[in-house]
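Cont'd.
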Amino acid sequence: MDGNGRWAQARGRDRSYGHKAGAEVVRPVVTECSNLGLEALTLYAFSTENWTRSNEEVSTLMDLYVMYLESERQLFFDNNVRFNQIGRRDGLPPEVLDALDRMKEDTAKHDGLTMTLALNYGSRAEITDAVRAIARKTAEGALAPGQIDEQTIASHLYTAGLPDPDLLIRTAGEMRLSNYLLWQLSYAEFYVTDVCWPEFTVEELHKALSAFKGRTRRFGGVV
Ligand code: FPP
């Protein structure tokens, strides 16, 4: 969800204004993904590198996550959406952890769209944590090195149980992955739009989905 800051600055406003506008855009996108019957939607809300931003910006964002999780409860219930979070818990303020845990617990039985917030998420941190967990099992003798396969690794990532993404949408025109789902995106189709996140509409979502439908996916094979 990139471009909140640029969108706000282009309007002579501060970055927080852009983040608040960005938070408003999440509702229609989640609702549409749910209406379309999609299995999973993962939103990159805060990276392990975003802590280097000013205290003011970080604290605005943390407040926004809590407010979002409280104000959107009904949306998750009305649409049978299951809430999930990926990322390190260490470092997140207790009120954010409480709000995440409550929403996760309260929507655990929903079987529609799984909406995952990547919060304090970094793919390298995720892979490091997975390697540590696997190494522990190996040291304890619970797992032989030769038994470690791709499935072992996938099942130790924060995304265990989620399908690999079919489509990555990046807003605000940046052509990079920014430490996002490096393992999981191996065969995803990329769609980059210049539209900044606060202006990302359901129509923009449909443009991305149409582009995706036109792609030929080969998964390394030939068609
Ligand atoms: C990156 O764009 C965006 C973020 C670090 C924050 C994303 C947060 C939101 C969309 C709002 C809250 C979300 C929820 C789910 C409540 P940037 O602001 O760094 O943009 P820039 O590259 O133009 O500066």
